[in-house]
Amino acid sequence: MSGTMIVGTLLRANTTLIEIIPEEWIKIAELPEDAPMDAILIRSVSLIERQFLSVGSVYQCSERVSVAVRTSKYRPQEAILRLVRQSCHGFTGALLDATAISIRTDGRGPDLRGPGGSFEKTQDFRVAYTVPA
Questions:
Q1: Does the pLDDT value for residue 101 go beyond 90?
Q2: How many helices, marked H, and strands, marked E, lie in the chain?
């Protein structure tokens, strides 16, 4: 389990978001060349793992995760970014083998032009979680 997988799971669980961006176009690490104009890319920016010798069986992780929203038009991009924030910000709990998950926003990136004249913008999150060692 990683911060990118946690964020991806939460985004794919948002039915309103999936109506706009199908879950097969919410990708981790890279978008394929044939990706449609409207897609979401989730990337890990940095990861800090802390292993405690007294416990030894878990890692406490703090990961900065960037969610890039790519759209053909600017206005839908802002609405999708709002859904991305609603899906993740403030989440606490457990998913799969990760426990003690807490997610907060960690800044937004600039407006960029992407492939084919698309619009791109990122929303970053700080994802803290504990996983088995």
A1: yes
A2: 3, 7
Q: Is the distance from CB of 41 to CB of 124 less than 8 angstroms?
A: no
| Three-class secondary structure of residue 68 per DSSP | strand
- pLDDT on residue 55: 57
Residues 68, 43 contacting (CB under 8 angstroms):
yes
**Is the CB of residue 16 less than 8 Å from the CB of residue 83?**
yes
- Rounded Cα–Cα distance for residues 5 and 7 (Å): 5
For residue 111, pLDDT over 70 is answered with yes
Q: Which residues contact 5 (CB under 8 A, 6 or more apart)?
A: 28, 96
Contact 7, 67 (CB under 8 A): yes
Write the DSSP symbol of residue 28: E
